[in-house]
């Protein structure tokens, strides 16, 4: 019997923020581990996940192609679909397409504007929406619906763990690219302005605040678990990590640093 699937992406949540947080509800789903993202920013990472991949373990002494094939094959167990294999994912290389072909209703709720419904990510979804509020996991949960007669796939991108980490954005410095880059792209063109970098104490405070947002997400998760049918398969991860001053970096994207690639990963079934 096919299983409902909930795939949660905590945007920008680096692994040690998750590890520091109190997460009793995530612990009900499974044991979290440190894995590595395929990309350092939101859009390409989500594209990879919608291919059917998840964060990798950085295995040594293996061919990459074999890792990919095995990862696609894991969906046989996650979905309970006998005979599902790598060949079912080609040539589209789309997890939502495979799910639709197997009778799933595919639903996405995203919080980051770069994932908006006009992007190429909105393919093979029956219902795909950008949330009006950047930090509204609670609102997303209200919109999640399960049907006992039709298995569903819910792909949820959460903005709570992304800068400004649920803080009042007006109380923080404006940072190009993280305060609505597409809405304000032209604001500073031709202006002799430059963002002032955070000091060490601010970096520490921001990291602590991200830990608090993970705990907030975990608190809300209780309602989603309660809503989900028995045997729903949960995946909880992040699209990439974040730097909080390490190596002179803040944030993610055009940054080559291990903290940007380290993400939490856990999965399990509601019993």
Structure explained in plain terms:
This protein has 271 residues and is α/β, with parallel strands linked by helices. The protein has a single domain, classed as Alkaline Phosphatase, subunit A (3-Layer(aba) Sandwich). It is built from 9 helices and 9 strands. The chain has helices spanning 15-20, 24-29, 42-51, 64-73, 75-79, 95-101, 137-143, 200-227, 258-261; strands spanning 5-10, 33-36, 105-110, 127-130, 152-158, 233-237, 243-244, 250-251, 262-269. The strands form 2 sheets. It has a 7-stranded mixed sheet with strand order 2-9-6-1-5-3-4. A hairpin with a 5-residue loop joins β7 and β8 (250-251). The longest helix has 28 residues, at 200-227. It is globular. The protein starts with a strand and ends with a strand. Mean pLDDT is 89; it is low at 174-193.
Keywords summarizing the entry:
alpha/beta, globular, Alkaline Phosphatase, subunit A, 271 residues, seven-stranded mixed beta sheet, 31% helix, 9 helices, two-stranded antiparallel ribbon
In CATH terms, the superfamily is: Alkaline Phosphatase, subunit A
Question: What is the string of helix and strand elements?
Answer: EHHEHHHHEEHEHEEEHE
Percent in helix: 25-40%
Q: What is the CATH topology?
A: Alkaline Phosphatase, subunit A
Please, how many domains? Answer: 1
- What fraction of residues sit in β-strands? 15-25%
**What would the average pLDDT be, to the nearest integer?**
89
Annotation field: number of helices: 9
Biggest pleated sheet: 7 strands, mixed
CATH class: Alpha Beta
Structural class based on helices, strands and sheet pairing: alpha/beta
Distance between the termini: 15 Å
Number of strands: 9
Radius of gyration, in Å, reads 19 Å
- From the coordinates shown, what is the CATH architecture? 3-Layer(aba) Sandwich
Unreliable parts: 174-193
Strand order of the largest sheet: 2-9-6-1-5-3-4
Shape, principal axes of CA atoms = globular
């Amino acid at each position: 019997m096919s299983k409902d699937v909930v795939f949660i992406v905590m945007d920008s949540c680096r692994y040690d923020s998750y590890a520091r947080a109190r997460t009793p509800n995530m612990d009900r789903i499974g044991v979290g581990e440190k894995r590595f993202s395929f990309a350092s920013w939101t859009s390409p990472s989500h594209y990879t996940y919608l291919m059917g991949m998840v964060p990798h373990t950085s295995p040594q002494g293996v061919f990459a192609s074999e890792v990919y094939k095995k990862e696609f094959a894991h969906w046989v167990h996650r979905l309970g679909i006998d005979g599902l294999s790598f060949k079912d994912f080609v040539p589209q290389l789309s997890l939502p397409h495979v799910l639709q072909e197997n009778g799933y209703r595919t639903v996405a709720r995203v919080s980051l504007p770069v994932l908006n419904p006009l992007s190429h990510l909105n393919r093979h979804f029956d219902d795909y929406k950008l949330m009006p509020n950047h930090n509204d996991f609670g609102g997303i949960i209200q919109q999640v619906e399960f049907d006992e007669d039709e298995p569903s796939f819910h792909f949820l991108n959460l903005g709570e763990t992304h800068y400004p980490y649920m803080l009042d954005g007006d109380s923080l410095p404006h940072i190009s690219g993280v305060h609505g880059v597409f809405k304000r792209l032209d604001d500073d063109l031709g202006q002799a302005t430059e963002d002032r970098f955070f000091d060490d104490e601010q970096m520490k405070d921001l990291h602590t605040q991200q830990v608090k947002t993970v705990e907030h997400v975990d608190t809300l998760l209780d309602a989603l678990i309660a809503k989900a049918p028995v045997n729903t398969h949960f995946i909880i991860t992040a699209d990439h990590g974040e730097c909080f001053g390490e190596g002179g970096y803040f944030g993610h994207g055009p940054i080559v640093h291990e903290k940007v690639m380290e993400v939490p990963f856990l999965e399990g079934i509601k019993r």
